[in-house]
DNA sequence: AGCGGACTGGACTGGCCGGTCCAGTGTGTG
DNA sequence: CACACACTGGACCGGCCAGTCCAGTCCGCT
């Protein structure tokens, strides 16, 4: 059974409120550190509302995984448009690093954190997270492909591989940032990824 | 209060057995998915033994984090010795990829997984994991430094930055591998890191 | 042998947690 | 306006879980 889709505006709002409450609690305390009573309290909802909109706890967590994917990828939408220039890539990388500074290097990447907690426990959640990573990597790849189409990368360059390595650098850099409480870990990892992209530029 | 150090050989063995049982359960079910009763059963120990050797649940999990660090870093000791040659680096990278194949791309990196579950909850555990990552990165850096000392890297090369980026590639690659259930994600990320090292070789 | 501390077994407790249930109240439609 | 159904409140239950407690047993040492 999957989550019941609300039939009214009010229902949709309640469902959203539950997911947002659950997502914020999960970000603070982790998946298993979040009880349905906690969610119920923060969402100002009752137990039966939770079970009206979600089949069970796992179903709710799947919705949280999807919401986290949407937030992370959606939050970068404006920056994604400019990933077809070196300046745009730098601006995007800088935004990620700045965000880690404002967060005091805490929390890491919501997708990455959830991956460690859900990937081995719930196949549906794993697929939601994989979808988020795919959308993220696609945005990077498409930026590089637009550069290639304009002849700004040399013919042998592989936008797919560069995008995949860049995403790996983001995730790895964020993990090191989180464990070491040092945003420079992400900056350095992104510098490395940037170098690979710069090396793929066409000699003009 | 920290864990009581056993005074006898028998005590040391019991303590070890508990940590191993806890570590394997945590690897299977996650930190909060593992109850002390589970640990007690798998370790063939009693509740009072758990509380004799560990102050509380968090203290045990800190010991698990340390054991995971030791296992991951210790398990690569033989490969670390040869990180001062391109062949040695390739062998090390290949071993990591092969391990993911044999594990069917499941589980990710024990240190990385625990990071997502413990880093924000328990400062002591975070420090144990940071220590594991430091030892790992140091091994890579020292290999590159030996290459540099032999004049095989060009003078501008930065072994510290290369080692840090390589570790980020490993962690990011493992996360992508785990979420996508595809060991090639790690292989590709390591290829990227390798390229950066190859580009830093002295022109001979 | 016998002392003291390290070590062990396992019953017990109070609280929390996922999930159920039912008696309602709102609300859009015919 | 009335009917059906979406939605809501909250009491309740059985099970699990971290942590406590005490009555022991083992073991090194003198």
Structure description:
Two copies of one chain form a homodimer. Chain A is mainly α and 204 residues long. Chain A has two domains: 9-55, Arc Repressor Mutant, subunit A; 76-199, Tetracycline Repressor, domain 2 (Orthogonal Bundle). Helix content of chain A is 73%, strand content 0%. In chain A, helix 1 crosses helix 2 (36-42), helix 4 runs parallel beside helix 8 (123-149) and helix 7 runs antiparallel to helix 8 (123-149). The model of chain A has no long low-confidence stretch (mean pLDDT 95). Chains A and B meet through helix 7, helix 8, helix 9 and helix 10 of A and helix 7, helix 8, helix 9 and helix 10 of B. The structure holds a DNA duplex (30 and 30 nucleotides).
Helix content of chain A: over 70%
Q: Determine the structural class of chain A based on helices, strands and strand pairing.
A: mainly alpha
Biggest pleated-sheet summary of chain A: none
Under CATH at level 1, the class of the largest domain in chain A stands as: Mainly Alpha
User: What's the average pLDDT of chain A?
Assistant: 95
| Structure annotation, total helices of chain A | 10
Provide the low-confidence segments of chain A as ranges.
none
Give the H and E element order of chain A. Answer: HHHHHHHHHH
Structural shape of chain A: elongated
Gyration radius from CA atoms of chain A, angstroms: 19 Å
How many domains of chain A? The number is 2
The chain pair forming the largest interface, with residue counts per chain, is: A-B, 47 and 47 residues
Oligomer: homodimer
């Amino acid at each position: 059974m999957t989550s019941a889709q609300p039939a009214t505006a009010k229902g949709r709002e309640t469902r959203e409120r539950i997911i947002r409450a659950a997502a914020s609690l999960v970000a603070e305390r982790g998946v298993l550190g979040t009880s349905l009573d906690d969610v119920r309290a923060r969402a100002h909802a009752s137990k039966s509302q939770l079970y009206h909109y979600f089949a069970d706890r796992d179903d709710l967590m799947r919705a949280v995984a999807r919401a986290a994917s949407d937030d992370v990828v959606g939050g970068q939408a404006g920056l994604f448009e400019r990933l077809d220039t070196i300046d745009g890539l730098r601006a995007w990388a800088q935004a990620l690093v700045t965000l880690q500074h404002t967060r005091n290097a805490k929390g890491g990447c919501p997708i990455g954190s959830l991956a460690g907690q859900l990937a081995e426990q719930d196949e549906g959640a794993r697929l939601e997270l994989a979808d988020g990573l795919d959308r993220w990597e696609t945005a990077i790849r498409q930026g590089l492909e637009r550069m290639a189409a304009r002849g700004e990368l040399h013919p042998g360059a592989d936008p797919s591989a560069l995008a995949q390595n860049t995403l790996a650098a983001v995730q790895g850099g964020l993990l090191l940032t989180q464990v070491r409480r040092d945003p420079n870990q992400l900056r350095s990892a992104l510098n490395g990824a940037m170098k690979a992209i710069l090396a793929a530029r066409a000699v003009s």
